[in-house]
């Protein structure tokens, strides 16, 4: 599975498609940690599409840009109606950004797809470009 479609921002002149919410949030990130966390959420897709998650996570800055309010998400994590696996994934993503700490044992609650997303996020965060995460043949 690749993340190119979900994380690429169209360059000018590539048509008049409006950027997705994920692309707007990626543009607004100030740090590598934020960018990796947003990429993981966008790549996961399902949790990121839930209105209750978006309203807890996303706010509009004074200049009109969309941004993630990670600390607000931490405070609302257990009130979002997520199942254990979704909450484990989101908790690990929040740990990447920093306002929260989640035990790595939470990976035990993830399915293979979400585990791969978290592992790729950790590799991106480390800055290492020689480790591949995926199915071994």
Task: State the main characteristics.
globular; disordered N terminus; 2 strands; 8 helices; single chain; two-stranded antiparallel sheet; 137 residues; mainly alpha
Which helices and strands occur, and which strands form pairs?
Elements: H1 4-7, H2 21-28, H3 32-44, H4 46-49, H5 51-57, E1 58-60, E2 66-68, H6 70-76, H7 84-97, H8 112-126
Antiparallel strand pairs: 1-2
Helix pairs in contact: 3-7, 3-8, 7-8
Question: Quick summary of this structure?
Answer:
The chain is 53% helix and 4% strand. The chain is mainly alpha-helical and 137 residues long.
Q: How would you explain this protein's 3D organization?
A:
It is built from 8 helices and 2 strands. Helix 3 (32-44) packs antiparallel against helix 7, helix 3 (32-44) runs antiparallel to helix 8 and helix 7 (84-97) packs parallel to helix 8 (112-126). It is mainly alpha-helical. The protein has a two-stranded antiparallel sheet with strand order 1-2. Residues 1-15 have low confidence and may be disordered. The longest helix has 15 residues, at 112-126. The radius of gyration is 15 Å and the shape is globular. Helices cover 53% and strands 4% of the residues. It has helices at residues 4-7, 21-28, 32-44, 46-49, 51-57, 70-76, 84-97, 112-126; strands spanning 58-60, 66-68.
């Amino acid at each position: 599975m690749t993340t190119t479609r979900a994380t690429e921002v169209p360059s000018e002149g590539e048509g008049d498609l409006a950027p997705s919410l994920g692309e707007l949030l990626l543009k607004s990130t100030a740090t590598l940690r934020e960018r990796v966390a947003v990429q993981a959420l966008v790549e996961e897709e399902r949790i990121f599409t839930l209105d209750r998650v978006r309203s807890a996570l996303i706010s509009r800055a004074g200049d009109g840009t969309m941004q993630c309010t990670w600390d607000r998400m931490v405070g609302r994590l257990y009130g979002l109606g997520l199942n254990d696996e979704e909450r484990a994934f989101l908790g690990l993503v929040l740990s990447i950004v920093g306002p929260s700490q989640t035990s790595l044992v939470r990976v035990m609650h993830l399915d293979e797809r979400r585990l791969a997303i978290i592992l790729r996020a950790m590799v991106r965060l480390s800055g290492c470009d020689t480790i591949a995460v995926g199915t071994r043949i």
